[in-house]
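Hey, resending since the last one bounced:
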Amino acid sequence: MFQKRKILILIIIFLILFSISSYSQTITRVNTIRINMFGVLDDKGDMNLNVKFTFPTNAMYIQIKTAYPNPYVIVRNLLGSSSTMEFRDAKVSYEDQSNSLRLIAKVLGAAVNKRQRWNVNIGKNTEMLYSDSQKALFLSVQPAFEDNVMIQTFTLNLPKGATDFKFDPKTGIFTYLLNRNPAKGKTNVDVNFKYKPRIMSALYKVYGNPELLNGQYWIAKTIFTNTGTSDIVELRISYKLGDYSSWSPESIYSLVAPGGTVVDFYYPIISPNIAQLKTASFADLQIKYSYKDINGKTYSDSVSYRIQILGINQFEFSNLPEEERTGVWIDDFSNVPLLSAFVTKLDDPVKMFAGMVSQYAGGPATASNDKEAIKFCNALYDLMVFNGISYQTPSGFLVEYKSGGQDIKYPRDVLRDKAGTCIDLAIFYASVCEAVGLKTYIVVIPGHAFPVIELPSGDILPIEATGVGGSAVGKSATFEEVVEIGEKNLQELKIGKFFIVDVQKLQSDGVLPPELPKLSEDILTKWGYKVPTEETKPIQSSGQTTQTQINTQETRIQPTSINISGRYEGMYKNLATGATGELALTLYQNGLNISGEIEVDYSTGTISGTMSGSNIQFNAIIEDYYGQKIVVTFTGVIQGNTISGNYIIKGANVNGTFNVKKVQ
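The structure tokens again:
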């Protein structure tokens, strides 16, 4: 039942990376994704850039083009608000004749002058193959996914008069001297500041890491352009984030030539005290800068911006502003990889619960073989059910934005509340497995998330963690059923509509959890956690796995047997206005997943969601009379042939009730 399948890495993850680490092993893979880059630097430090991404097969090219008809989405992190480069006049296009994607743009401040040498960031561990007075050639190779490698070549054409070339593969910095005459004339500058309007306190460690995820999680950046006719020297820039950081060390630029630009980024070292925020707060971002003209006269200024800091459990799903979004799913969930910061394998309650699972499973050596690892995963699911951990409806915020945000629980919060959303339960399950050395992934798809465990052999074990029932629901799926549903979810992944969060890889790169308050050593006992006795242990199945059929003192938990497929008709009521209207739902149940259609008055739309026991939640995307798409979240309870509950229209602050009855 455990189908052998390797996790695929989303193609877009590596297409958006500009700096690629070298791969020194012998290349034996079949397919090669080639990235050919040509850059022409001028004497001000700006660069005209031409990049061509060539895919190894026409089938892969067609798949990507079909999933992303707007090619801008693929190079979003190079061009958008999270970019670590300032592009001008960017053009992105598909080239069918060569199975390629091409980017042409001007890069401001591609080379900057520090300590009298011009610096270009090529990328760490890249190899320089050749250089002369006119150009330098660089190469980097890295594994991509399955039978693919990615080879990047970068031909950098240097400005006239460039000499004394040096390249450090450890830092990825290429430097040179440039013979030029000092420019004298009028001093004038243009200074533009960009900053993130919101940051997540849970991710304060992320924001201080300029190498993480291509540096896209900066807090602020300064775009300083010399618009005069005279050289500017000794440009100094520094930042401060309220009371959560000290003034950053000054970034010092020796020279900004007339017409030249410096792009400077702020990656703050933030105090752990920020993790004490329970709700959203505000802080003042301060930026100060100074520079000298050619005669030594000093100019200085400072600015301040108020930014919002989200509470420790608040997670914003996208780092893209509304004006940059193109309507594709990944636009609204670009922050999903950062969920790995909520996986807390070293947190004491998680380690203690992992110990309980190991005790209950008979001390399996999870890293030794697949059978032992599956035994632990089965026991973990069993203990979740036995101790009453159940699914709950998520709570959200930032509803004025399309994707908005959600209150995410840490695993200790799931243990305390004995409940969690699909994301919470996936994070919890992954954390406990990571605590015993199992590699985990969190897969996020539209409206849902679930954990996947990599077994010692490399095979994978997907788990539908919302299959738990507990006392709040009264029923649960078996372990075999939740694996079967997880397998189906994986089989139905569609390019452009999923993220696979590699927890270990992202945490090793620096997406780390915040420091959480210490809890008492007997906290699980206080929260009522127990290991089943001989009288309450699950019945063993005749197969290779253990069925999740827990005997409690009063109730024998059986698999969920509710089937709600069919057509429902009824009414809805707007609680603010008292207005009512007709509502019809056509539901299709597949395990714990729900899909279908909706009819509201004269409008129609589609449905996707999940159910747990007698609870159901689904999102409806409805197109109104004027062609506008409206997202409505329904949360209800199934009682026989009726479904009733509440709804909320995202971004409109409108809510109400609904009641429908099955008619066929």
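The chain is about 15% helix and 40% strand.

Sorry for the duplicate.
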